[in-house]
Predict the 3D structure of the following.
Amino acid sequence: MDWTLQEVCLQGQEISDLWTIKDSKRLVRRVTSKHNVLILGSSQSRESVDLNQCAKWRVDVINRRTGGGSIFLTPTNLLWVDFIITRGDVLWDDDIHRSSLWVANTWKVALEALISTPLTIASQVSQKSDLEKSFCFAGTSIGELVFESRKLVGISQRRTRDKCIFSTGIYVTYDTDLHSRLFLLSRDQRIEASNHLRSSMVTLSELYKNSQEQIDETGKPDAAKLHDLVWNHLTRVLRNI
């Protein structure tokens, strides 16, 4: 069965509408944002957000329709890829934990070919404090992709009776300090959150820093080139599924 490939660049409410499942065929979609966005989990309240800091940094605030902690999205920091399948597809599984394993394995095959580093699929949920629950990448859930126990690819899913969307993301770069500033936290809490994020997750740039192929003029990995490189590898792997 073939995949339809789609690339969209959205803003504000357009991003929130992505979790409305309209497609009736296999679809893989790369999502980028025109602006900075703080995406809250479905159960997170805007009362916890520092709207003054969001205004200062020109960050829109939206809620998604899946659970978990917040994601800080800029036009270049996160490679966001959605996979959509329907009931009856050989990839469909009613078990909520098993159902995303093929997604994690697709990412695993694509990334290991690029970074020559073994990755693993998490088999248990990491424990998080109430503070850490505000941030998606502060912990790991079953079926997500990790590097030496640090989260690399986050995966969430939303399903109806007949369709399922797996929203996945890998940070190419990540400003943990700015992300923590967007919440109503004390100075000590912000430092704690930022430090925990740095230790609990890893960016693609960190794993790819030794490559000379995608380096910009500052000597760092080029985010835009890494986006394209990983997207191309990912879609090639999908052709065999």
Q: What stands out?
A: Residues 4-238 form a domain with the BirA Bifunctional Protein; domain 2 fold (CATH 3.30.930.10). The chain has a mean pLDDT of 89. Residues 42 and 67 are 5 Å apart (CA to CA).
